[in-house]
Design a protein that fits this description.
- With about 450 residues, the protein is mainly α.
- It is built from 15 helices and two strands.
- The chain folds into two domains: about 190 residues, Growth Hormone, Chain: A (Up-down Bundle), CATH 1.20.1250.20; about 190 residues, MFS general substrate transporter like domains (Growth Hormone, Chain: A, Up-down Bundle), CATH 1.20.1250.20.
- Helix content is about 75%, strand content about 0%.
- It starts with 7 loop residues before the first helix and ends in a 14-residue tail after the last strand.
């Protein structure tokens, strides 16, 4: 899997991702301590609001940013977003009011909503071979999991010798380092659209392509399943460990590490597994298993209380493994479902719609857990996840072919598309994606 790093351009971008993720991890720790300094016992409410602002920015601003930057050089977009994020991180240590946290976090996450989909859409243009691209997706998943494990440890070591304000300097370094690595990478030119589209069409094009493609509708349903179960892990693990088991922060780290370890095992296994199996045959069963596992844990906790500590760690590891089995291959589906010129729009649609799923799951995990108890929160999230898994099974047909035979009664005989794909009896066959000539997915037959 690591042989994909022999590609020099991808290697620089992967290092940019790792450095930026490390900076983001330090920011998470520093932001919590800053919130406590400013709000004391209300720090949890401050952080909850900040994370809600993050999700709103991701869902609402990413399509706007993609539409506004569609014709700009991708390197300029990526570097500009990193510079804005670094500037915000540089200002954070000097604020003295809660509202300033909200304002700066909104700006930072708006820049991230610009950077992330553009970055993700660049990778398949660099790695045209699907096997190499699959390895890159697994490496990306691995980088996220390692960041979750290592950044808190790095922050702890730094806090032993400096104040938490210096953690923001690490965040600045991460974003500046990312910008420099992007600057020296020879990025391919963005594929130009054949037509100049009005802003409104650019704003909605990615979502229209996404929702018109059956496998991407299935992906969205599975994303809801993944978000439902993992939201409980991210929001309530601290409650389970500290209040349920009565254990300390070290054991909280062990629990989160178990989830991350399961995710890493899945990421390392998927490239070889997907060589011989279709994405659907991995992702849909993983979604069903994750939803049923969440409901099973809920039923157990209603009747017998918490499982033993080793069983709990194994459960969290399985949750992490199934979560990664759903989310890691998603880039393959996006790459397959759009022409290069539309790729960033489709990646942006996935970015916004997936975070809309999290925007639903996070409050349910927190509010239901606090109001009705953790088993009830698991039950509600498990039902939502099961609805997503069933919907994915229905929306994403089994063994859907890449190539479809179809006709174009609406196109004149001299249309360039018909010249590129000569028809017999007014029908022809090619890999089908939604675009200007193919606005509706063909039905069977």
């Amino acid at each position: 899997m690591f042989r994909v790093l022999s590609h020099p351009v991808y290697a620089r971008l992967f290092m940019a991702q790792v450095i930026a993720l490390t900076g983001t991890g330090l920011l998470t720790v520093a932001l919590g301590l800053l919130a406590f300094d400013l709000a004391g016992a209300q720090a949890g409410a401050v952080l909850g609001t900040a994370y809600a602002i993050k999700m709103v920015a991701y869902v609402g601003l990413s399509p706007i940013a993609a539409a506004l930057t569609e014709h700009l050089p991708r390197k300029a977009v990526l570097i500009g977003a990193d510079v804005i994020r670094a500037a915000v991180a540089l200002l954070l240590p000097f604020i003295d009011a809660v509202w300033q946290i909200y304002a700066l976090i909104f700006i930072l996450q708006a820049a991230s909503a610009t950077f992330t989909p553009a970055f993700q859409a660049t990778i398949p243009d660099i790695l045209s071979d699907e096997a190499e691209y699959t390895k890159a997706l697994s490496l990306s998943r691995l980088a996220y999991d390692l960041e979750n494990l290592l950044s808190p440890a790095l922050a702890g070591m730094l806090l032993a010798v400096v104040s938490y304000h210096w953690l923001f300097a690490g965040t600045v370094f991460g974003f500046v380092g990312s910008a420099l690595l992007v600057a020296i990478a020879a990025l391919p030119r963005r594929s130009a659209s054949k037509t100049t589209r009005p802003f409104r069409e650019r704003l909605t094009r990615g979502t229209r392509i996404y929702l018109a493609t059956p496998r991407l509708r299935g992906l969205l349903a599975l994303t809801l399943t993944a978000a439902s179960s993992s939201a409980f892990v991210l929001v309530n693990t601290v409650v389970v460990v500290r209040a349920g088991y009565g254990l300390d922060d070290a054991h909280l780290a062990y629990a989160l590490a178990a989830f991350g370890a399961g995710s890493m095992i899945s990421a390392l296994s998927l490239p070889r597994l997907l060589e011989n199996r279709r994405d659907r045959s991995v992702m849909v069963p993983a979604g069903a298993a994750l939803a049923l596992g969440t409901l099973a844990l809920s039923a157990y906790m209603f009747t017998a209380g918490l499982p033993s500590w080793p069983a709990f760690l194994i459960t969290w590891g399985l949750f992490g493994l199934l979560y990664a089995a759903i989310m890691t291959p998603s880039g393959r589906l996006l790459r397959r479902s759009a022409h290069p010129a539309d790729r960033q729009a489709v990646f942006t649609a996935q970015f916004a719609l997936s975070h809309a799923c999290w925007l639903v799951a996070y409050p349910v995990a927190g509010w239901v857990g606090q109001g009705l108890g953790l088993p009830s929160a698991l039950a509600v999230l498990g039902v939502i996840g099961l609805i997503g898994a069933i919907a994915a099974r229905r929306l994403w047909p089994v063994d859907q072919p890449e190539d479809f035979e179809h006709s174009h009664a609406d196109l004149p005989p001299d249309h360039p598309h018909l010249k590129d794909h000569p028809a017999q009896n007014k029908r022809h066959t090619h890999a089908f994606v939604i675009d200007d000539e193919h606005r509706v997915w063909p039905s069977h037959g």
